[in-house]
Structure formats: C-alpha cells, structure tokens
Amino acid sequence: MDATAINDSGAGRDAASISIENVGKVYPDGTVAVGDISFEVPAGELVVLIGPSGSGKSTLLRMLNRLIEPSKGTIRIDGADIAAQDPTELRRQIGYVIQNVGLFPHQTIRTNVGTVPHLLGWKKKRIRDRSDELLELVGLDPTRYGARYPHELSGGQRQRVGVARALAADPVVLLMDEPFSAVDPIVRGRLQEEFLRLQAAVRKTIVLVTHDIDEAVRLGDRIVVLGENGHLLQYAPPPELLSRPATDAVRDFVGADRGIRRLTVTPVRTAMRPIGQDADVDRFPTVDISASLYDALAEMLTADALNVAVTEKGIPVGTVSRSALFEAPKRDTVPTGS
Ligand SMILES: Nc1ncnc2c1ncn2[C@@H]1O[C@H](COP(=O)(O)OP(=O)(O)OP(=O)(O)O)[C@@H](O)[C@H]1O
Question: Beta partners for 23?
C-alpha cells in the first residue's frame, strides 16, 4: 500500500526541504531560547533535535509551524518563506505529533485520524477510506479499533493513532516532539522500529525532538545537538557525531549516555539470531563476528539498512536487526551465541 497515494490533488505529494537561516528566539522576559541557528533539512530526511533540558528544542520545532514566531531569521519550506504564509494554512501542510498525542477524548479513533482531512473539506467516504488506510499502515486494524475511543487503547496504540493522524492529509513535513517518550522502553523500541519502516515507505521530511541519544541515533539521518542558550553545537549524521564529536560539550552529552557506550563494549553475537529467517541476507551489509554492536550500528546507518549479516571467516552465520541492538542484554548475562 502506498500511504501517499491519496491526497487533495489525487497524487502523492513530495516531501519538502526545510531551510533554517540565522533563526533565533528571545522570549519577552529576555530568555534566549534559541541562539542564531542555521541548517538545512533535505527533503525526505529525518532530522533529530537533541540537547539538554531547556536548550530550545521545542521552541525551534514550534517555530517551524509558527506556533512560536522567531525573533529573527528566516525559515523556508521548499524555498518559500513561512513568515509570508497564513499560519493556519501552513499548519495543515505540516503534521504535528506531541508527547501523549493529544487525541480528542470524545471522538472515535477514526474521527481523530480524519481531523485534518475534515478541516480540508474532504468528502465523508474519502476521509473514512483515508483514515482506515492510515490505521492499517500504523498496524491498527480499522475494523477493530476505528470505532473505539482513545481511552480504550493502550499508550503505544494511542501513539500510533497520533502518527496516523499527523500523516492523514499527506503533509509535506512532519514535526514530532518526544513522540515515543510516554510509553515504556519495550513498547518504545517497537514503535521506533515500526516508525522506521513507516518512514521508509512514506519518506516524509521529519524533524523530531528527543532527550534520548539512543533514539536519536536509531532514527535520525542527521542529528542537531543543541547546547546552552539554544546554540547549535553540531549537525551531523549519527556515525560522525559519535566518532567525531565537535566539542567537549557534545562528547560529554553523547558519551554520558550509557546506551551508546554499552553498544561499543558489547559483542555483536549477543544480539544475533540464526540465519534462515531472512531471505535477503545476501543484500545486508556485513560485520565480522568479532565486531561490537556499535560497529553493527555504524554499518546499518552507513548502508541505510535495518539489518546486518554477521560473518565468520567471511561466511554469514547470523543476522542482527537495528531493534535487537538496543534490546540486547548486557554482555555478562549472554551465552556465547553460536
Ligand atoms: N513562553 C516562554 N517564556 C519564557 N521563557 C520560555 C518560554 N517557553 C520556554 N521558555 C524558556 O526557553 C528555553 C527553551 O525552552 P524549550 O522548551 O524550547 O527547551 P527544550 O530543549 O525543549 O526543553 P525540554 O527538553 O525540557 O523540553 C528554556 O529556558 C525555557 O525556560
């Protein structure tokens, strides 16, 4: 199924590029929330904003759909200055997913997903078809869940509905503010993995805020690290960020996280599963059995792959998926695997 197949014009819309040029935000009380920031988000890429609490991540994100107006600078979406656009019109082109989703409690799941198409004046049947298509895409059977209310779903299911709703009108940009942080770590891992598959299918331009460096590395094509007073400390793809942090502050921030450090010291075999379940193993990037989970992750990110094949003396002996990297138990508790 092609999630971009139905929209206003009847054809899938392309993802848009975003250009952020010397953008800053000073709140009326004098707080500098975002310094002087410039970077480009290529169309179809997922960029993660990460940084300590108060470093301006949400402020920056919300300037992209004009929920907050910048104090200076220019933001362009596909070359067009958003300051010149009607904010309501702009927001209908931009999906927005927030922590705890913000579903309407007294509306059914199907109605929630159809919110923006409804505002755009789509016909009833078209809204329903689109809502059901999106629910299926995020892994919720519409016949089972479509008529339920938000409180009748689990936290993880509600989060998926939030993503479906944000995609319903085929936005050119998707903004996500800590979309997976309200669910427990296991559900979060599953949602992240599903989300990567979804993104591979729909290829939206996505800007996602997180506190979690694991999540940033796992999901991001590129990562923006923000520091004090909303300064941009580094903008780089995950392997570069991890291997060549631009400043001590970035090194501390990235290195302070146990998850990434753990990957560098855990052998790849701990997350390996036997070969045979993956028909495409020949096309996976490869790492040697002596490699670490971090090496496996670097290979996946470089090849834009969700799996690696593990080889011993050049022969594939197993595979590791991206989600397994983050679920692998500590090395001490793991059998040798072969
Ligand atoms: N309306 C406001 N008025 C004044 N200061 C504000 C306002 N909103 C946010 N701030 C301040 O701006 C700075 C950046 O806030 P922002 O919410 O963008 O940070 P963040 O990186 O998203 O933080 P967190 O990770 O804690 O959510 C903080 O110092 C915050 O206190």
Answer: 37
